[in-house]
Recover the amino acids of this structure.
């Protein structure tokens, strides 16, 4: 692979450079979406469970906070993140532990932004699924002397599987489609914060239509597949 | 009543839609206010990277005037038939400055040689002439390779400044006009010999060819009150 690259470099360096210009953001974007989705499942599951089961009066307040990224413009989140990740915010404190100055312009910074941005897309489907499980199944498990922990893992989670699937797919896809926040806190560093959506933006702005078409077309297909699969998951869940 | 008022007024108030390179934001706001007061016309300003505007104008964005951050873009617009031939002129010559909020960090070009910083902000060199000038400066000083991994890019010079202003980058190459109004931090005004001069041209776009407000604005830009504002913000004279 490396040798082929070297041999070709003399004749068609532009083609290879372009391939790299698309490949590198593509890989980075997939990495970002994967890490974000896994983190969201870890953080979102207990949160969704609590929102589904708790009788606390202020739980809808928490639900509203979780849902806020749905309506806030990315520029608002980007602005606050730029300050929060920076040397004068909490992000700066974390960064200093590693001898850095800021979490902006880093992969970790993008992950933090993406987790906040995509949180409602993961929490909401899982919460809905947990609510659909209902009290009866949990009570039945309890009468069979299952501990709440056992009941959660052996009854609630398997029954809520379509919710997890939908949440994971939406969280992943929404992170792939993230643009405004990445533009504001990323700094456009190749291989580190230059994601697909930013790469497309640059291709368009610099009149590189061919590349823009290629990547944009890819994302259109991706979006269609994602939406279709969530619909199919939904349909199957209703038949169960 | 309306007809009577129109008939009496010497000219009907028109509106000019002006696309302004981000570095010229502050002076453009001042000049537009002066022009509106003097002419009775309205000016609607939009701010962004020059390359960004070109892409938009090429696809029919409704702008009458472009205040570019370079000379190449207005020329290209004329060649492509998007702008009125012969209407381009240099309204300002931009100055690049290395700026930090830290009052001791920037001492001169040695700051770039020692490179004791984690992140340095520049504008996207493909989209923004100030970004291209920053790269040229680093190249001329022979430090581009050592500094490259520390560069973060803003989509425009305004975003590069934002990165420095919020402290996320310790320093950055910005337009002198962005920091001319204050004395905080430390700065090094980059000698013009280190990069191609940032001559900034204005041009009348095709959609504004018959717009009196747009023509008037371009004329006003070359008059004393406007030139005074331009120099005040640290730009060199236009032509």
């Amino acid at each position: 692979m490396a040798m082929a690259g070297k041999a070709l470099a003399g004749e068609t360096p532009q083609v290879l450079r372009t391939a790299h210009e698309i490949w590198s953001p593509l890989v980075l974007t997939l990495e970002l979406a994967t890490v974000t989705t896994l983190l969201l499942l870890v953080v979102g599951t207990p949160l969704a469970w609590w929102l589904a089961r708790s009788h606390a009066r202020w739980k809808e307040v928490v639900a509203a906070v979780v849902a806020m990224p749905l309506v806030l413009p990315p520029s608002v989140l980007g602005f606050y993140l730029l300050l929060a990740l920076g040397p004068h915010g909490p992000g700066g404190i974390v960064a200093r532990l590693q001898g850095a100055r800021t979490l902006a312009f880093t992969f970790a910074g993008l992950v933090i932004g993406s987790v906040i941005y995509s949180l409602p897309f993961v929490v909401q489907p899982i919460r809905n699924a947990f609510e659909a499980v209902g009290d009866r199944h949990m009570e039945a498990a309890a009468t069979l002397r299952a501990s709440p922990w056992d009941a959660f893992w052996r009854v609630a989670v398997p029954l809520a599987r379509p919710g997890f699937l939908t949440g994971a797919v939406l969280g992943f896809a929404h992170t792939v489609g993230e643009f405004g926040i990445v533009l504001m806190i990323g700094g456009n560093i190749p291989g580190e914060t230059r994601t697909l959506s930013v790469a497309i933006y640059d291709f368009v702005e610099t009149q590189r239509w061919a590349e823009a078409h290629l990547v944009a077309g890819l994302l259109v297909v991706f979006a269609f597949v994602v939406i279709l699969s969530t619909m199919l998951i939904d349909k199957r869940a209703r038949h169960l | 009543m309306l007809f009577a008022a129109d008939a009496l007024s010497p000219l009907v108030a028109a509106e000019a839609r002006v696309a302004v390179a981000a570095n010229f934001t502050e002076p453009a706001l001042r000049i537009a206010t002066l022009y509106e007061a003097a002419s009775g016309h309205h000016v609607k300003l939009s701010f962004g990277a020059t390359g960004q505007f070109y892409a938009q104008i090429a696809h029919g964005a409704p702008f009458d005037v472009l205040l570019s951050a370079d000379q190449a873009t207005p020329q290209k617009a004329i060649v492509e038939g998007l702008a009125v031939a012969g209407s381009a002129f240099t309204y300002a010559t931009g100055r690049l400055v290395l700026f930090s909020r830290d009052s001791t960090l920037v001492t001169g070009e040695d700051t770039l040689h020692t490179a004791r910083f984690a992140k340095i902000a520049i504008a996207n060199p493909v989209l923004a002439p100030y970004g291209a000038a920053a790269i040229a400066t680093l190249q001329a000083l022979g430090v581009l390779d050592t500094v490259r991994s520390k560069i973060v890019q803003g989509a425009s010079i305004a975003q590069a400044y934002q990165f420095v202003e919020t402290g996320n980058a310790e320093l950055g190459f910005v337009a002198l006009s962005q920091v001319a109004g204050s004395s905080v931090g430390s700065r090094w005004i980059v000698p013009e010999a280190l990069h191609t001069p940032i001559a900034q041209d204005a041009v009348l776009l095709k959609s504004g060819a018959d717009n009196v407000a747009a023509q008037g604005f371009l004329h006003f830009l070359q008059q004393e009150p406007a030139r005074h504002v331009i120099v005040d913000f640290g730009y060199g004279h236009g032509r």
Chain A has one domain: 23-51+67-239.
